Amino acid sequence: MEFVMPAFACIVVVFGLIKRVPVFDIFLKGAKEGVQILYTIAPTIIGLVFAIDLLRSSGSIDAICNFIEPAADYLGFPKEIVPMALLRPISGGGSTALLTSLYSDCGPDSFAGRVASVLAGSSETTFYAIAMYFGCIKVKKIRHTLFAAIIADITAAIMSILTVRIFFGMN
Questions:
Q1: Residue 138: partners with Cβ closer than 8 Å, 6 or more residues away
Q2: 134-158, pLDDT tens digit by residue?
Q3: Which of 14, 68, 90, 150 is 20 to 30 A off residue 48, Cα-Cα?
Q4: 7 within some domain
Q5: Residue by residue, what is the 3-state secondary structure of the chain?
Q6: Does 14 map to a domain?
Q7: Global confidence as pTM
Q8: What b/e readout covers 119-141, taking b as 16+ CB neighbours within 10 angstroms?
Q9: Per residue in 12-23, pLDDT tens?
Q10: 129 pLDDT more than 90
């Protein structure tokens, strides 16, 4: 499998030479555009990462989870995945760390482990995606997108529970 990327690069270069395309010049142009895009979105991403770290270190995530857990438990939502469900729209890496921790605590084949797995595979890092894409094209008004994305995240959480209940008969 180590040869796939070098083989792909060689195929692109050979195809470019056959078509008489200045491959290296086009590569440089693409690299320049990539750096310009990075320059455009870097402040947004840095701000998002700072906000996530601030929420974690201040204990706000734990306070919100403690507030939501009784209602989640009443609705049949496993309280073990509340932190992941809250963090998933904000941080993919953070929610993956919580998923790994949940596997250690509850087991991957537990109800909470399976719901968390389905949730991780069926939801998006909403705030990161909005910050990345809208920041890149300099769109400021995101309220409709944000509302729809949050509804999608809530739907993903609910459907994760229903999916595990239907396919595995677990509660």
A1: 40
A2: 877 878 888 888 899 999 999 999 9
A3: 68
A4: no
A5: CCCHHHHHHHHHHHHHHHCCCCHHHHHHHHHHHHHHHHHHHHHHHHHHHHHHHHHHHHCHHHHHHHHHHHHHHHCCCCHHHHHHHHHCCCCHHHHHHHHHHHHHHHCCCCHHHHHHHHHHHHCCCHHHHHHHHHHHCCCCCCHHHHHHHHHHHHHHHHHHHHHHHHHHCCC
A6: no
A7: 0.67
A8: bbebbebbbbebbeebbeeeeee
A9: 889 888 988 898
A10: no
- Reading the block at residue 47, the tokens are 């701000």
For the chain, the average pLDDT equals 86
Tokens coding 99: 């998923």
Going by C-beta distance under 8 Å and a sequence separation of 6 or more, which residues neighbour residue 56? Answer: 94
**∠ Cα 109 110 116 (to 5°):** 90
CA nearest 167: which of 101, 98, 117, 106? 117
Residue 163's domain spans which residues?
42-168
Q: State the total domains in the chain.
A: 1
Distance (Å, rounded) from C-alpha 167 to C-alpha 28? 50
Residue at 155 is within a domain: yes
